[in-house]
Amino acid sequence: MSPGGDPSEERVGYEVADRFGDDEDVHIGGVASLGDVPSPFGGERDPDPCSLVIFGVTGDLAHRKLMPALYDLGCHGVLPFGTTIVGYGRQELDDDELRALLQGSIDDHYGADTIDGSLCERILLTPRYVQGQFDDPEGYARLGAVLDDLDAGGTRGNRMFYLATPPSQFGVIVEQLGASGLARKGAFDAESARGAGVPGWTRVVIEKPFGRDLETARALNLEIADVFDERQVYRIDHYLAKETVQNLLVLRFANGIFEPVWNRRYVDFVEITAAETLGVEHRGPYYEEAGALRDMITPHLIQLFSLVAMEPPVAFDADAVRDEKLKVLRAVRHIPRHLAARCAVRAQYVQGVVDGDGVTAYRSEERVAPDSHTETYAAVKLLVDNWRWQGVPFYLRTGKRLARRVTEIAIHFKLPPVLLFREPAGGGGLQANVLVLRVQPDEGFSLNIESKLPGHGTALQPVAMDYSYGTTLNELPFSAYETVLVDAMEGDMTLFTRGDQAEEAWRIVDPILDEWAGKPQREIPIYEAGGWGPETADALIAGDGHTWRRP
Ligand SMILES: NC(=O)c1ccc[n+]([C@@H]2O[C@H](COP(=O)([O-])OP(=O)(O)OC[C@H]3O[C@@H](n4cnc5c(N)ncnc54)[C@H](OP(=O)(O)O)[C@@H]3O)[C@@H](O)[C@H]2O)c1
Question: What distance in angstroms lies between residue 343's CA and the mean position of ligand 1's atoms?
């Protein structure tokens, strides 16, 4: 605590040892306290302290993502002092056991001997545990008593419910939060809380995927709307919380050179790729239910698409940005079910070699049906019926056990109308300019342009103008889950999905899901692990005269 300062104003922040990576996100885990860190959209980060109630605190997400992210927020110096973790779950634990569990998550991530013990002390404070089933009203009564107790302390009466549970439990928990009075409908910020006569705001953070299709997403939205005001609801897309994705908005709208060419006159096509080298790991049962389209295309890649394709918002506030995203989603051309095969491809991996190691087929993975038809690869072609994008295809693809782990957005520009120069050395034709935004790993972007080969004549060679966060700014960005947590604590909804957006994303893919579900008995196409997906995906894009990048 700063001398004479208000403890509730203090930010947790210490210098700690080293930098570490993560399989999906970069976690800082070691940059010196940065004090007040600028928000990506201007201003300083100023999150409120709160009771952070984690449903599913014993799960994988809490262990691998949330606890390291909270620790990183401490390292960044932005975790508000007073924030207290409350775990709710069915396991028999006490407060001390929860503390050990959470501490173990941080230790596992960073190594017990490298983390800053005093920082952990302060992040964890005295976590509280409430034992109960998700549908047990008495459990919520006990939770309410703990929260009342914490309201009187450093949380300033603010409450954030984080639903880190299987999606099947979202509706159950929301209903119980409503029935128990814990939802405090309408109290989305300090002012509305005062109006509602409660001591602080209440927000609910909902993990992905949001529904299984349009019908279930609508039903879940209705259940939520019964209990919460939309301004209290933070539907997560942690991809949107990645630094490069936020930078996409800055790149487009804070630079004069991109927006004039960001349209059908100059852009040939756009690729959005989320490729993983991992298989399903221990998440077989979840993945069997979800598949690549539900797991990645709807919650993440369609959201990335909407940021690339949307019109400039009138302001950088949550509703202005989300209104534009919704508008472009609405402009996506309907894919009739009978044409789904022309616009979408699915496949499943068989055994192969990834990063030099032999890996098994999806059907041989732990807790996966030996005759499973679940797709581990999906590619979708979208067309947008508006003035900016008419005729420009957007190709979205994702897959597990591919050749490289990479998430990127590639904007392919058209070739110049007349070629004055010789073919590049080695032939291969003139390369069109490509702007690549690397979302992960090695966040940054590059612009590929043609250049003259040194020497006589005017032979051409493609070169890249490259910008990388790690080297250019010598600073690692916030991890996605740090951004998710701090934005929700600040009440900044810009990067969270609004209910209508979630439904619109399902509207786009629903006919594809219906078509695939109608043909379960048909053999699903396969691709070899360690490659770049099935031949049918190449054909999807080759039909338009394009080829996928091999990043
Ligand atoms: N894991 C990831 O990398 C990841 C990434 C992005 C998004 N997500 C999303 O995050 C959410 C959680 O995923 P996860 O991987 O953490 O799942 P998980 O490991 O299966 O954990 C789920 C948690 O929910 C609890 N739970 C499950 N069913 C329950 C029930 N019927 N009653 C009471 N408790 C129950 C589990 O408690 P027990 O310990 O008692 O079983 C556990 O704490 C999902 O929506 C997922 O899509 C996960």
Answer: 33
